[in-house]
User: Fold this.
Amino acid sequence: MAGMMLKGETIHSMLPMDIPWWQFDHALFFGFVYIVVCVLGVGLALAVFRSWRDAGR
Assistant:
C-alpha cells in the first residue's frame, strides 16, 4: 500500500529505496539529477520572490 512505512522505519526519505546506490554510475546519475532539480527549484523560488518584491513597489 502507498504511504505505509516499513517495519523499523522512522523517517521517510526522498531517495528511492530500490536503487543500488553503491554502484558508481547510479550514484553519479541520480546525484546529478537531484542537484539539477534542487538548483532549478531554488532559481524558481528566487524568481518568484523577486517578482513579488518588485510588484510591491
Observations:
- Residues 21 and 30 are 9 Å apart (CA to CA).
- The two ends are 49 Å apart (CA to CA).
